[in-house]
Amino acid sequence: MPIATVNPANGETLKTYEPMGEEEVERRLRLAQATFRTYRTTVFADRARWLSKAADLLDEDRQEIGRVMTVEMGKPIKQSRAEAAKCAKAMRWYAERAERLLADEEPAETDVRDSGASRVRVRYRPLGPVLAVMPWNFPLWQVVRFAAPALMAGNVGLLKHASSVPQTALYLEDLFHRAGFAEGCFQTLLVGSAAVDGILRDERVMAATLTGSEPAGRAVATTAGEMIKKTVLELGGSDPYIVMPSADLDRAAEVAVTARVQNTGQSCIAAKRFIVHTDVHDAFAERFVEGMEALKVGDPLQEDTEVGPLASEQGRTDLEELVDDAKRSGAEVLCGGARPDGPGWYYPPTVLTGVTRQMRVHREEAFGPVATLYRAGDLDEALLIANDTPFGLSSNVWTRDTDEVERFAEDLEAGAVYVNGMTASHPAFPFGGVKRSGYGRELSGHGIREFCNITTVWQGA
Fold first, then answer.
1. Where along the chain do its domains lie?
2. Residues 196, 189: contact at Cβ < 8 Å?
3. Which end of the chain, N or C, is less surrounded by CB atoms within 10 Å?
4. Taking the mean position of all CA atoms in its chain, how far away is CA 317?
5. Taking a C-beta distance cutoff of 8 angstroms, is the pair 318, 367 a contact?
6. CATH class in words for 3-235+437-460
7. How far, CA to CA in Å, does 19 sit from each of 23, 163, 192, 193?
8. How many other C-beta atoms can be found within 10 angstroms of the C-beta atom of residue 378?
9. What UniProt keywords are attached to this protein's entry (predicted)?
10. What is the DSSP letter of 297?
């Protein structure tokens, strides 16, 4: 894939970039290693000042970078600006809290004495240069939720962003430099995916984080395993959205629409499989379909657009094939289900019912505004359907029954359970999945410690 900005609303190539050659990549790796030697000794107050400045600059740039993201990957413009604001919030969250989150820990005095020590401390020390392989769907947020904690922990970052969002990738490097971070603290590598393996094998790269597809995660995990390097992987998701009889049905249906089509449905944590108790299934389905049909699909630069184009032509083709396979196998289309005429990579909000385990859309992630609707006879069947997936990123449950809440919280196979609300990432809460959705956690105190050397300091009497 060329490194280029291609407007998904019309297919026009706006800007292309030459990939960095081996010499430039080598220069940046040397710079990252050299910068880390000094950056790791900086104090939290300096790191926090620079990161807070980056947040201020991002707020100032919100209109401009929002438009860049929309033009590069088709996100509705209001959502682009909201993404920039969310990134600034996360930067400030870590700037204010990192020192406390990484403070030395003192084990219980009885354990210290039992070990024969006079004092024991657990320290969190940075690892070094970390390679971040990031996707196009949240081109700012995916990077910042790695970069903010990594930089506050004293690491330096090397970003290999998706080839379709080069302007956003270069903006991020410039943003951190303008904020006061040394040149080698955060660098963008304009390279293709084929270069990732060699960079990860380089001894100067100490760890890696990847958000993306399952095949990409397997490739990075394989190389990192061979090189014995720490990785955090956030991969696909096919999140269930369960509605039980006690739910506020109007609210559940309203939120369901947003949960499915946020970012034009191109979100790992978007609700994708809607599992509704038979007692309220038909009433929910009527409201849900009505809401999906009412969405405005159009030019993502228009303020009132709710669903834009898919980010790539291949992405639309992949989504279309999932829907067509389901239709051929007997699924019923309640709305949407066919690509529109005209330019751009649009696909309409779609709801499928009558989905069976044999259909690809049941097993695979639908990365676009396509929802599958299931009927469950009781709580046990709802859980059975919800967990019948190779993924386990997040989940959504609508019920006012406290016993049901506890049962879902215990038995759903996912990294998060959101009750009476839709999944959303927040800097204060750990984010990540199980099964083929990956491993490790981003955000919160758990995320900032992922790329730290957790060191025991034992002192004798």
1. 3-235+437-460, 239-426
2. no
3. C
4. 22
5. yes
6. alpha beta
7. 11, 10, 7, 11
8. 12
9. NADP, Oxidoreductase
10. B
* All residues at 6 or more sequence positions from 281 whose CB lies less than 8 Å from its CB, including other chains: 375
Rounded CA-CA distance 107/421 in Å is: 38
Q: 239: which strand partners?
A: 271
Superfamily for the 239-426 domain = Aldehyde Dehydrogenase; Chain A, domain 2 (3.40.309.10)
pLDDT tens-digit map of 181-190: 999 999 999 9
**Phi, psi values for residue 283, rounded to 5°:** -65, -40
Could you tell me the CA-to-CA distances from 85 to 61, 90, 97, 139, 343 in Å, in that order?
10, 9, 19, 13, 31
Q: Please, what's the largest Cα pairwise distance for the chain?
A: 79
Instruction: For residue range 252-305, list pLDDT tens digits in order.
Output: 999 999 999 999 999 999 999 999 999 999 999 999 999 999 999 999 999 999
Q: What is the pLDDT of residues 313-351, one digit of tens each?
A: 999 999 999 999 999 999 999 999 999 999 999 999 999
**408 near 397, Cβ under 8 Å?**
yes
Q: Give Cα separations from 336 to 86, 125, 346, 369 (angstroms).
A: 31, 52, 11, 10
Tell me the catalytic residues: 234, 268
Measured in residues, the chain has a length of 461
Closest CA to 211 of 228, 230, 231: 231
In this predicted structure, what is the pLDDT of residue 175?
98
pTM over 0.90? The answer is yes
